[in-house]
User: Fold NADP-dependent succinic semialdehyde dehydrogenase from Streptomyces gelaticus.
Amino acid sequence: MPIATVNPANGETLRTFEALDEAGIERRLDAADTAFKQYRTTGFAERARLLNQAAVLLDEDQQDIARTMTTEMGKPVKAARAEAAKCAKAMRWYAAHAEELLADEHPSAADVEDSGASRAYVHYRPLGAVLAVMPWNFPLWQVVRFAAPALMAGNVGLLKHASNVPQTAMYLEGLFRRAGFPAGCFQTLLVGSGAVAAILRDRRVAAATLTGSEPAGRSVASIAGDEVKRTVLELGGSDPYLVMPSADVARAARTAVTARVQNNGQSCIAAKRFIVHTEVYEEFAERFTVGMSDLMVGDPMQESTDIGPLASEQGRTDLEELVDDALGQGASALCGGGRPDGLAPELVHGWFYAPTVLTGITPAMRIHREETFGPVASLYRVEGLDEAIALANDSPFGLSSNVWTRDPDEARRCVRDLQAGGVFFNGMTASHPALPFGGVKRSGYGRELAGQGIRAFCNATTVWYGPEPVDAAS
Assistant:
């Protein structure tokens, strides 16, 4: 795949970039290694000062970088601005909380004595250069949620971003440089996916984090395993959205629309499978379909647009194949089901797809098992909670889940039994710097954000002092 900015709203190639050659990669790996040796010794106050300055600059750049993101991958510009604001918030959160999250941990006095020590504790130290292989769908947020905790922990970052968002990738390197981070602390590697293996195997790379497809995750995990390097993986998702009879159905249906079509439907944590109790199915289906049908599809640079184009032509083709397979096997489209009508002439060559609600899904259909990356919802009717949970878990993925109920017993059952990295009640899944984020099953392993995220790339070092003082020989 060429490294290029291609506007998905019209298919026009705006800029192309040369990939780094071996010498260029070597220079950046060496710069990262050199930077880490010094940066790891800085204190939390200095790291926080630098990260807070990056947040200030990002706020100032919000409008410009939002337009860049929209141009490169098609999200509505209003959503792009919100993404930039969220990134600045996360930077400030980690700047404020990193020191306490990585504070030394002290076992009880009794356990210290039992270990034979006069003193013992756990101290967190950075690992080194962390390679981040990141996707295009949230081109700022996916990077910042790795970079903010990694930099605050004293690590340095190497970003291999998706090839269709090169300008966003270069912006991020420039942002941290302008904020005052030492040279080499955060670098963008403009390389194709074929270069990742050699970079990850390099002795100067300590660990890796990847957000992306299951095949990409398998590849990175296998290489890192062979090299005995730590990884965090956030892969695909096909999140269930359960609606039970006690729910506020009107609010559940309104929220369901946003939960499905956020980021043009191209979100791993977007709700994709809507599992509705038969008692409220008809009302939910009607409200949900009307809400999906009323969405404005069009130019993502316009403030009135709800749904922009998919990020790539191949992405739209993949989505079309999933929907066509389902329709061909007997599913029905309550709305959508194809490319939208009535686009402005300048958008007819863009990669748009109409908001779609499908019913009559069966296990024989690909869409029952595969992730739909676009504004397409699968709607199921169930007779009770047992069937709802069983259907929710009938997926190779387990990223997050959404449950609408006012019944505390139902809530307890869902917390106990849903196979997912999160359970969100009476709302939609969202990431927040204070809450750990990640999945189970084929949605990956490890956690980003919160304390788990910053400790993911740290060495938990046991420090033990025997009965004899350290300075006894002096």
